[in-house]
Amino acid sequence: MQKNISILFLFLVLLGSCTQKKENLNDSEGKTKKDVISFAPKVTGRIVKIYVTEGQTVKRGDTLALLDIPEVSAKIAQAQGAVSAATAQEQMAKNGATADQMRQLQAKYKGLKEQYDFAQKSFRRASNMYRDSLMSPQAYDEVYAKLQGAKAKYDAVVAELDDVKRGTRFEKVEMAAGQASQAKGALQEANVAYSERYVIATNDMEIETISLNPGELATAGFALFNGYIPESTYFRFTVPESEISKYKKGQAVTLQVVYNKENLEGTILYIKQLTRYADITTAYPDYQLQDAVYEIKVKPKDMNKAKNILVNANVILK
Known about the structure:
The chain contains six helices and 14 strands. The protein is of the alpha+beta class. The two termini are 43 Å apart. This is ABC transporter permease.
C-alpha cells in the first residue's frame, strides 16, 4: 500500500513538472541588453594614470586616463622653431631692404658709376689716339673691353637699386606667408596631438572593463575602456515562425525578469528574421529546423526601472 502511494506521488510530481514546462514553453525567453561603447586613445602612448575603475559610471567630458607621449613634445619644439623662422622670413619680405642695406647699395652704385665715367673718358682718349695712329689696335681693344665691363657692372647695380626701391616682389611675400602658415599648421597639429594625452569620455558610460594597466603601452585606436551606455536597456527575444503571429511591431507586452521576478511593461520596436541558428536566445528551442527564427526587440516603458537590470539577465516575454 505504501509503495503504491509513493508511486502515485512520484507520478503527480512528474506531471506537475511537465505541466510547468509546457506553460514555460508558451512564453519566450530572452536576454537583457544595453548599447555597447568603447573609448580608445587617438595617439600611441604609455599609460601614466587611470582615473576611473570598473563598474563606475562616467559622464561625457570626464578624464579617464593620462598618457605619456614624449615624441609629441619633441615635435612641438621643432614646430615652434619652424614658426619663428618662417614668421621672421615673412616679416623681412614685407619690410624689404633695411636702411643699412640701402646705404651699402648706394655706395656701391656711386663707386661703379665713377668707374664707368672713367672708362668712358679713357675710351674717348683712346679713340682720338687710335685715329692719329698713336695707339695700337691691341691697346685700343683693351680700353674698349674695360669700358664694356664697367658699363655692365653699372647697369647691374642700377637694376639692383631700382628693384630695392620698388620693394620685395609680391610673389616672394606670398611665398614667405605660405611658409609661415605651413609652420603654424604643423605647430597646431602637434599641440592637438599633445592634448590627446588625456583620454576623455565622449559619452556617458558604465565602465565594464579596463583593458590595460598603468605602465603599459596603449596604441592608437585600441579600446582601452569598454562598457555600456546608461539608460539604453532593451530586451532581445528569439521566436520561431510558428509563434511569431502573436507579436506585432508597436505592440505593448509584459516581461518578467527571471532572477528577481520583477514585472515590466514594454513595446516591441521591431521584428526581423535571423539568418543563423547560433543567434537565438531561447533556452528551450521547440520548433522544426526548417522554421524561420525571428528576433524581437522590446524597449521598456519605464527606463528608470529597467536600467538597473543586469546585462544578459534572462527575461520572459509573456
